[in-house]
Amino acid sequence: MRIIFIGAGQIGVPTLQALQKSSEHELLAVVTQPDKPVGRAKRIEAPPVKKAIAGTTIQILQPARIRDRQAIEEIRALQPDVIVVMAYGQIFPREALESPRLACLNLHASLLPRWRGAAPIQAAIAAGDRETGITVMYMSEELDTGDLLLQRTSDIRQDDTGGSLHDRLAQIAPEALLESLRMLAKGNAPRIAQDNSFATYAPKLNREDGKIDWLEPAEVIERKIRAFNPWPGAFMKIDGRNLKIFSASVVDLRSKPGEILCSENELIIAARKGALSLHEVQLEGKRRMNAREFLRGHARSLRAAR
Q: How many angstroms separate the CA atoms of 110 and 148, rounded?
């Protein structure tokens, strides 16, 4: 089949590469976001999917908005059978959705209708879900509401971070898509309406979402620390500076929420219920280190988190 891939994020790269290698499909073009300034140096960088096909002859389109007339006309001119979308970050207009001959498919990193929205991986870990997965759905004009074609599940492990679960879902997505395309080609691909009564939402995260609230139970905070690693990063304030927390474990201690209880080798912060022993941390402007290393230089100056 003649396919256009539309995406930007790293999670879509294995799926794009699977389409490149497939002898059953012709990858007509890749549509991605424009190159953008990144980091403190504001160095211009290409999206991960563009980097993934660097050096190939595959056509690349980078419209500022998928709704732009020129972008829609360029997609139509390629006459795709299927458009595949993964982690693109824009809402599609009806004209774009209707441009392929067979379907416009979206790969979403949750078991829809649970965790519609921009941050389903982090939301699933933070909520304590036991499983998640990849959903292949027919796209609609509303966010993540289209009919389901296929789902593949993956357990959420007790030590999963947002990063580790992201990478695992990225690896199961290609086969989910290829199976969906096989069913489309045979004409037996199902369309299962989502039950909106079970819908939950995972809005886009920003850096402030990572600020720890020590009035929450320790087990909730521990899940958020894992969920927000690497983005947006969980943090607390110490002496007016951000202390980023990469990993921690729940301990059975009780004290005033936010109180710092440190010994020579262990940094413990009390929560509303229980407490957390911090494992890996990074003070603003410093390198990442384990809690023992951090305490060597900061034990005397520690005070309750604000």
A: 12
Residues 198 and 251 placed together within one structural domain of the fold: no
pLDDT above 50 for 306:
no
pTM: 0.95
Write the pLDDT tens digit of every residue in 115-145. Answer: 999 999 999 999 999 999 999 999 999 999 9
Domain count, the chain: 2
Asked whether residue 21 is domain-assigned, the answer is: yes
Same domain, 18 and 41: yes
Owning domain of residue 23: 2-202
User: 42 and 35 in contact (C-beta within 8 Å)?
Assistant: no
Burial track 199-236 (b if 16+ CB lie within 10 A, e otherwise) = ebebeebeeebbebebebebebbbbbbbbbbebbbbbb
Interatomic CA distance for residues 306 and 302, integer angstroms: 12
